[in-house]
Amino acid sequence: MTVDAISLAVFGSLFASVAEEMGVTLQRASFSPNIKERLDLSCAVFDADARMVAQAAHIPVHLGSMPASVASALRSCDVFQRG
User: Which tens digits make up the pLDDT trace of 20-40?
Assistant: First the structure.
């Protein structure tokens, strides 16, 4: 499958926007001052093989452990469905 540069940029921006919106939603819904006030959070979008597709510009230090955490969750939970 080949993807042209324009489509890649459009979808890359789309997935990054989703990750940013995840962070905004988490901040608004949180009761923790670490998340609500300090913005000590990270959000990312992963594919079915636990590969990071996009990340938000929050606290990038968390993103180092996310792929391993997502892969572990996928291995241990068989209730995930496509979609």
Answer: 999 999 999 999 998 888 888
